[in-house]
Design goal:
Two copies of one chain form a homodimer. Chain A contains 13 helices and 38 strands. The longest helix of chain A is centred in the middle third of the chain and has 18 residues. Chain A has 732 residues and is of the alpha+beta class. In chain A, helix 7 packs parallel to helix 8. Chains A and B meet through helix 7 and helix 8 of A and helix 7 and helix 8 of B.
């Protein structure tokens, strides 16, 4: 990312030792109050426009008792861990530093081409006399929220330490409405529940739907990013930023006092983090606004991440793609090549000697069909899952040597297919399902990325389905978080973009590593073929999952009865076709799939036109209307261009939106094409009914658009061209 | 290894289903009896010359209840592990196969240039009607012992399974004498205790001396290879062969019934092994003889391993080496470069900006001194430990990113030193201390081996000190055993020989991977500088640790008061100087270090002559006298030559050995040089006193040689040369 320094004001002041400090946001709306409690525990509180957002909340960490430093040879005297110690109380202040930061930077890709990073900062240095340890708390206060983190300077009394638990509190002011999924060490693929905080305990069991790997830890545990709404209309979001070399944070609710406490993902032995000073935790973030749209527009998480670590980013490019995928997800065809093998021994099993099942999707003929389709419709890439050997027994066995990531099935000619694609201006997209066997993937990684370079792949979709190997580790623990980042860093050395599924939820690391082009880390469209997702899902994800970075949600399903692809699958896609179109705008991602099969797109070629046209990179984004769990309307201007695209989605309620196009240039005339739910459309009964209307619009236009239950709309807007548009009427 | 097929007789017979089967060794001395117990449990018993060695003992495995096979999508229905199942009883016989095998093969290196592999084999196929599973037991009966293993064919009812515990029994016939060390998941570096089996429970607590990583699991658990002796003079050894993709076996003693049961090393979650059919366990071995010398001469463990897996072995060469090592072990100098750093952040810490401690041993000047010394005295290589950054905090923190294995300290010029060495016909030996951080080592491995290739290293000493990372895993579990072999296999691709310390104890895998040139996996000479080892140690190791493969024992200490190197270390080396010389013969290894510092060798240049001369590869070996815990005398003929070398060691008792040289060619005259303890020598009071005598010998010679307490002798024998040896008298 190019950094564009607009302004920078540093005002470092080392204050005296005081137990109370206050910090204000640049616009003065947010006030942070830091104080030491009577027992010397650090606390903080946050106000917004004079209203309490976070009541006084304790900060600190519980540590595993340390082993005293030892030298080799002293090994001979076996040591135990000593008495437990904490970094939780008994602190005294030793100083405060304050500064202001204001810079505008340019992301490699994004919702907008310039991002302002403007905050007031306060560092509070604390000493724990009983241990001789120093711990700093760093607060960054933005106009739209707070970031805070623990910092552990290099010091004699604290070098290595093991975290038993982080105990960061977020004390709520009441029994807010929450948009939550169950806290889990291994999956985020849950449908959202909207409830009062006090109702989480009773609703959580039903919210824990089965998954391929899951570890729920508390009857009131929930995941971040957590969206909340107060009864007096404040929107609050709790999450984290820059999760590096640390365990992912969950929130455990004390539902008598309405206080969340951080709960980190443990390792195989139950410990939460291994630290070496100087070091710090990720940022704990609290976004707040009285305007829901501001929650979506916030760039706080990205801003709290480090600038781009890659010197050359010229090879990174947003990607719109199709793929050999939905037909396996629906059960129409298989990833596996054969049904004959009781199990696969990678490197020994001879696939040329087995009988193909006839259900293997990633075959030469089908892949060519997709390549042709991509070339005909302007898609950059074709994802092919199931191209490589090992799928016959990949799932459910915590198998160590599960894939080699380099050997194609006999019916997938990797060289010929890439040549065929390249000749048509299309790339294949690589797929690395790891089956969560992380050591095996790391051992294969260099060869796998080298193979990609050889055949011209520049993007990989990776997957972490199933329980982690090394066994006992969890998807969101420090060990695996380290792995995911390692994969991204190694990929960058090969000029490869990564789109990791089932990995830890994003926390803005795509700013630092923009080749992390996408992630899943939430319940994606695949669940529409696994029994369906709630219609309100897509009205919540932008408030929660997308706060940390883009999601490869794989929208674009045009045929909502899954049984049409697989008669044995009676799943229904809980969305109208226009809702699917809208997702290309409402769910920002530089990596967007058109997930359905070509035949379905060919059947609705006029509606498909929107997916063909919609960009995946933007100069400007506006959130025109938003309410979590209800509706979102977003407008975006294409990167470096003048075309605008608008998308709107609603929940299970029919809704009419008035969409003012006042973001358009008042001096120009435009032509808009509206893709809207037909009057009879309904996500359950008539999901594929839509109307398309084209007409002239201007910045003065206000469109009244009806959205069906589970519906939505899409709007593409381009400059008026007198030579061809003269006869167009005004769009209403 | 070249295979030289001398003879092969296969006699496959599929017998009918019978619950009792008998197998005899080729010479008829050993009889194996297989039977099914009343509850359908397989049992075996072993006799030697009509005397019971193993009483009827049960065979079987306890499994974790299986998850039924699942497909992706079916993930949505979370499964539990079901009811526990076992492969322990309820079997019925379905057939027996018998065969005879006789072949002679040539190892790449070894105690002898040809090894005969001659056994009778019986495969007993069993079916468990309740589960529909089939399990086979394969027995190989040699003249000197038994190998047995479990085999799990590919079958519908058994594909993936998890071992809760292997329950292989070894029922002893009485309260034998055992030469044992405590069972431990993480270290083998214990001194041996000699006791009755019934005394293990009371003696074990004192036998568990502190170590850098240790996990004792039972009050009566002991390690293999376990040497035993019966009151009527039978020698029995229990161990395993070909430990691949499985957890290392310990033995847990039921000391009321004198029955050992196998106890596997667990993973982080307590499970013992992850299996996929077709597969098998390692061989469980029972060596037996009424002649202790036969226990040492046995090649049973090697024979039970697979033939060489490497196509080209021309680059593998036995190595005699010196090293910058003993002075760090004794505490005279440091591996670390500086004392200034609270901790090291590999890749960030700038060593050019820190003050050297002045105690860093691996500096250019010192390494050159060692290179000069090696070149002057005919050593092939110089090991240098502490050459690479990271040693300041390498130990005791289960640090993940602890070394990078490629960055030298500022005072170690890797390019210049290798050039300097090569110009003198010497190589440097690489050192990779991993600090047990296995993932970090695997990530660095390719770069580390590539660096070795670049600078001309062809051997690496690797180390696994401290607790394993991934945390919760153990040194001897399946996870790490997989890692050690991975390191050897990857090294072979780079034509690199591996000498791994603190890795799992060898089980003969050096036959299959002869670039596994050495291992530690026992209490080595370093412990003489950590307070000392018992004098009987070296009279036991060849019966136990060396059964599985060579040990890098690092003998050759010439100065027994460690305080002479480091005044703060009052350790005493519990050995005479001649005992140290003898170890080059009695402790077979293709990798032998002269471990002391050059100054000490220069002080005793005449005695050092033996170390200069002694080969590290042999055509022929004879064990002339042996009693575990008491004495060993071995004679070996150099590979492809006529020189013989003899070594003898005793325990803490003074002993006179009559050494008959009847292994010499009766038609020739020889000249022998004897290095013997001086009459006043004593490992405690006068360890460095020796005498050297040279004289003529022949096959009729019988030398009476006195060994001091903790003493030994060495003898080098070469052809008589009339031109220079005419005046020599007969050696007595």
């Amino acid at each position: 990312m190019k950094k564009l320094l607009i302004g920078f004001i540093a005002l470092w002041t080392m204050g005296g030792a005081t137990a109370q400090e206050t910090l204000q946001s640049p616009d003065g709306n947010l006030t942070l109050r830091f104080a030491l409690a009577d027992d010397g525990a650090p606390t903080y509180a946050l106000d917004y426009k004079g209203r309490a957002v976070i009541l006084p909340s304790r900060l600190g960490l519980e540590l595993r008792g340390d082993a005293p430093a030892a030298k080799f040879g002293e090994e001979l005297e076996k040591r135990d861990f000593g008495a437990p110690v904490s970094l939780y109380d008994g602190f005294e202040p030793i100083g405060t530093e304050r500064s202001t930061f204001d810079e505008t930077w340019e992301p490699v890709w994004g919702e907008q081409d310039r991002i302002r990073n403007h905050y007031n900062e306060m560092l509070v240095a604390l000493r724990q006399p009983a241990s001789g340890r120093v711990m700093n708390l760093r607060f960054r206060l933005y106009d739209d929220g707070l970031g805070l983190r623990y910092e552990f300077p290099e010091q004699p009394a604290l070098t290595y330490f093991v975290i038993k638990e982080e105990r960061t509190q977020f004390a709520m002011t009441g029994d807010h409405t929450a948009y939550w999924i169950p806290g889990d060490y291994d999956t985020q693929e849950y449908d959202y529940t909207i409830s009062r905080l006090s109702e989480i305990r009773s609703l959580l069991p039903a919210a824990v739907t089965p998954n391929s790997s899951q570890t729920v830890f508390s009857p009131t545990g929930v995941q971040t990013s957590l969206q909340l709404k107060t009864d007096d209309g404040l929107y609050i979001n709790l999450h984290e930023a820059a999760l590096v070399d640390y365990s992912c944070m969950h929130l455990d609710l004390d539902d008598r006092n309405m206080v969340f406490t951080s709960h980190l993902t443990p390792d195989a032995q139950g410990w939460k983090g291994y630290m070496q000073t100087p070091c710090h935790t990720p940022w704990r973030t609290i976004m707040v606004s009285d305007d829901a749209r501001q929650m979506l527009a916030s760039k706080l998480i990205l801003n709290l991440n480090e600038p781009c670590a890659l010197e050359d980013t010229s090879w990174i490019e947003p990607v719109k793609y199709v793929g050999v995928w939905w037909e396996m997800i629906t059960g129409k065809s298989d990833w596996a090549y054969t049904n004959e093998l009781p199990s696969v021994h990678v490197g020994q099993t001879d696939y040329t000697k087995v009988r193909p099942s006839g259900r293997h999707a990633a075959n030469n003929e089908k892949v060519k069909r997709y390549i042709d389709f991509a070339a005909d419709h302007g898609f950059a890439q074709v994802l092919v899952e199931g191209w490589n050997i090992g799928w016959e027994d990949w799932f459910g066995h915590t198998k160590d040597r599960v894939f080699d990531f380099v050997t194609p099935y006999p019916d997938f000619d990797i060289e010929a297919l890439n040549e065929y694609a390249h000749a048509k201006g299309v790339r294949l997209m690589m797929h690395h399902e790891t089956s969560s066997s992380a050591r095996n993937y790391e051992r294969c990684m260099e060869a796998a990325y080298t193979l990609m370079n050889k055949y011209g792949y520049n993007a990989v979709k990776s997957g972490y389905v199933g329980d982690i190997v090394p066994r006992g580790e969890h998807h969101y623990g420090q060990w695996m978080n380290n792995h995911y980042l390692y994969a991204v860093q190694r990929a960058a050395e090969h000029r490869i973009m990564v789109n990791a599924h089932e990995a830890v939820r994003p926390t803005g690391l795509c700013r630092t590593y923009p080749n992390l082009i996408g992630n899943e880390a939430a319940r994606g469209t695949e669940y529409q073929a696994f029994g369906g997702s709630k219609p309100h899902h897509v009205t919540i994800l932008p408030f929660t999952r997308l706060q940390g970075g883009p999601m490869d949600y794989t929208p674009g399903i045009f045929s909502m009865e899954v049984s049409k692809l697989n008669p044995e699958n009676d799943s229904h896609v809980n969305s109208t076709l226009c809702n699917q179109l809208a997702l290309y705008v409402t769910m920002y991602s530089p990596l967007q799939m058109a997930a359905d099969v070509p035949e379905h797109y060919e059947r609705y070629a006029d509606a498909f036109r929107f997916i063909e046209e919609v960009p995946v990179d933007w100069s400007e984004s506006r959130y025109l209307a938003a309410e979590p769990g209800a509706y979102i309307v977003a407008a975006r201007r294409e990167k470096g261009g003048e075309r605008w695209f608008v998308g709107g989605v609603t929940n299970e309620e029919r809704r009419t939106m008035e969409v003012a196009l006042d973001f358009l240039d008042p001096s120009k005339t435009y032509v808009a094409t509206l893709y809207a739910d037909a009057p009879t459309a309904d996500y359950e009964k008539n999901p594929e009914a839509y109307v398309i209307r084209t007409g002239k619009v201007s910045s003065a236009s206000k469109l009244k658009i009806d959205m069906a239950r589970g519906g939505g709309f899409a709007l593409s807007i381009r400059a008026f061209d007198p030579s061809q548009d003269a006869k167009l009427k005004r769009l209403k």
